[in-house]
Amino acid sequence: MQYSDLLNTHTKEKWERIGTHRRSGVAVPLFSVYSTISVGIGEIPDIKFLIKWCKKTGMSILQLLPMNDLGNDFAPYNAISSFALEPMYLSICKLKEVNLAPFKKEIRELKKLYSCGNERINYGIKKEKIDLLWKIYKRTYTNHINKFEKFKSENSYWLRDYALYKIIKEKSGDKNWEEWETGFKNKEEDFLKNIEKENSERKIFFYWIQWQLYEQLKLVKKYAQQKEVLLLGDLPFLVSRDSADVWANKNYFKPYLTSGAPPDMYFAMGQKWGMPPYHWEEIEKDNYIYIKERLKFAENFYDMFRIDHFVGLFRVWTIENNTPEDQAGLVGNFDPQDKQSWEKNGKKIINVMIQNSKMLPCAEDLGTVPQCSYKTLEEYGIPGMDVQRWVKEKNNYYEFINPGNYRINSVSTISTHDSSTLIDWWYNEAGTIDEKLFKRLCFEKGIDETKYNQIENALFNTMNSNSGRLFWKKEFKNLHMVLDVLGLNIEKAYEIIELYLDSYNEKKIFWKYIRMGSNFNNKISTEFIKKALIKVNQTSCIFSIQLLQEWLLFDESFLRKNEEMCYRINFPGIVDDKNWTAVLPFSLEELLELKINNIIKSINQSCNRE
Predict the structure, then answer these.
(1) pLDDT over 80 (residue 20)
(2) pTM above 0.85?
(3) What DSSP state is assigned to residue 268?
(4) Interatomic CA distance for residues 401 and 89, integer angstroms
(5) Res 564: pLDDT
(6) C-beta of residue 470 within 8 angstroms of C-beta of residue 487
(7) Same domain, residue pair 399 and 539
């Protein structure tokens, strides 16, 4: 493996700092874990348990999903600030420079009321924590705390705007900033000074919360350094339309548009996210100070940072705000539309990032990826992402590629926070195609509704098809049989044939790929999990990072729980109580004592990862 070639790229200094050797890691949303001392939700000091677990299982990367202050949908990638940390992750018991004695009873009652270990997070804990923190703050003398004063000074770029945004939101009954009184909406300084004067104590309170979060997360980084575990922070590419960032820097965004993704084989209707795209020309006019300050703050906590929706640095799929929701991302345009400018645009932003931070950038380069993205990642030595189930090559059918043919500058993984888990994929998606996509493609080929229904019944096992996924009937063993049913030639049916070649017999192909033997069995076992994880760790990718849920499937009881309850983190395009709420069924203390930890360590060692 020529990992030393990474030292000949634009990120040379970053690689020299962390080393160019094979690493294994785990990705975790903090809300999904908890310790016996957590109050309502996983808290920042709990991350130390995860670091200990990494050491115990032979890993050296801990990836944390976004830790930013969340809006009312509690979606980490739709945060209300790209700077401020989420208050509910603050450990009240670990506050600095306070006397907790008068509040011990209230802390115990809060812990009892919002007990951890339930299947889903109760996000009511956020308001309760902030209310209790306000009481503690009112009894706390914050003047002349040198570290607090230094924090305020070093973070003046964003801190005042964030605190005022929070105050005005409270005063307006949580209205979107676009519905505020004109003076506040337009950020007129006279209005801001008045509300700042009237709410000076509340303003410092929000400063204080952010300082406490900052101190706790910095301690975690120090602990990780002592344990030689690298922290990988997930920095959302976009920010909520109703956020302190957009309100305070309106010229940096295009509010008349929403970002999203065009249709692809995984999302037939595309995606409409709701967050406004950046106005990069305006950000450039200010010498990219907005980007530089974000990285400067994140560097306090992380050794590496993940650029969510990396391909958006080149161009973003944009949708008019008034586009009907049922159209999702079907109708839109890339911004900018000129393909010739994409590579230049992306490199300009990436140069700013690598020149203004010691952290190594990592890229989430999934979805509809322009060719310039792969070229740029290789040139810059930035790891992309290779998802096991999607990395294929075309023979007679699409087959999973040899582990040695994965990209060196990449992170190999079984699943992502936006995808199904391995179990969910195997039982509900492997060997299927998306019904909406198939239907849309048929209609585009001139097939009417009546004919379509006949085709669907002929090609697919509708008894086994569910959740919008269509299972191919076994008898359609070659594409000519499919073409006969469609009544189309191969040129006209090209996209449908690609779907067929990618998915038909997919389960048996994967079974053979991970070397499960000749006796194909549709049932997942711990042996199946082990072989899939060994395969993904054998790849030539310099990093292999798996969701905590995937690593834990070695545990028989957890495996069976997964078959009963979905531990998937997020379903893109769907807003419901299953998104961003799943909690693992045991504490972090119990995690450290699991018998499977030695098995996980042996896999990392056998795959020459640390």
Answers:
(1) yes
(2) yes
(3) T
(4) 40
(5) 82
(6) no
(7) yes
**pLDDT band of 264, cuts 50, 70, 90:** confident
Considering the chain, what is the average pLDDT of its residues? 95
The residue type found at 168 is I
| pLDDT at 88 (0 to 100) | 98
**Domain end marker among 504, 535, 558:** 504
Beta strands 61-64 and 23-28, pairing class: parallel
Residue 421 carries which DSSP code?
Answer: P
Domain containing 485 equals 432-504
Q: Is 495 exposed, middle or buried (0-12, 13-18, 19+ CB in 10 A)?
A: middle
480 shares its domain with 585: no
Q: Which residues contact 82 (CB under 8 A, 6 or more apart)?
A: 68, 235, 236, 239, 243, 245, 294
Task: Give the torsion through C-alpha atoms of 515, 521, 523, 525, to 10 deg.
Answer: -40
**Cα–Cα distance for residue pair 408/539, rounded to 1 Å:** 8
Domain total of the chain: 2
Q: Which among 243, 260, 261, 262 is positioned nearest to 252, based on CA atoms?
A: 243
What number is the average pLDDT over the span 197-213? Answer: 98
Same domain, 55 and 128: yes
* Sequence-distant contacts of 86-89: CB under 8 A, at least 24 apart: 86/213, 87/126, 87/129, 87/130, 87/133, 87/209, 87/213, 88/40, 88/41, 88/123, 88/125, 88/126, 88/129, 88/130, 89/30, 89/41, 89/42, 89/43, 89/44, 89/213
pLDDT score of 573: 72
The answer for residues whose C-beta is within 8 angstroms of residue 326's C-beta and 6 or more apart is: 269
Listed residue (56, 51, 224) closest to 601, CA to CA: 56
Alpha helices in 89-124 (DSSP H): 104-113
* Three-point CA angle 415, 421, 425, nearest 5°: 105
Q: What is the pLDDT of residues 457-496, one digit of tens each?
A: 999 998 877 778 999 999 999 999 999 999 999 999 999 9
C-alpha span between 213 and 86 (Å, rounded): 8
Question: Residue 496 falls within a domain, yes or no?
Answer: yes
The answer to whether position 583 is within a domain reads yes
Please state the separation of Cα 132 from the chain's center in Å.
30
Q: What's the DSSP call for residue 504? A: T
Q: Is the pLDDT of residue 1 over 60?
A: no
The answer to whether 272 touches 323, Cβ cutoff 8 Å, is yes
Q: In 10 A of CB 190, how many CB atoms?
A: 7
Q: Based on the domain organization, do 194 and 299 belong to the same domain?
A: yes
Query: Three-class SS of residue 412?
Result: strand
| 141 & 108 share domain | yes
Token pair, residue 235, equals 């920095």
Task: Enter the tokens of residue 463.
Answer: 């008894």
Rounded CA gap, 416 and 362, in Å?
A: 14
DSSP 8-state symbol, 83: S
- Looking at the structure, do residues 162 and 66 belong to the same domain, yes or no? yes
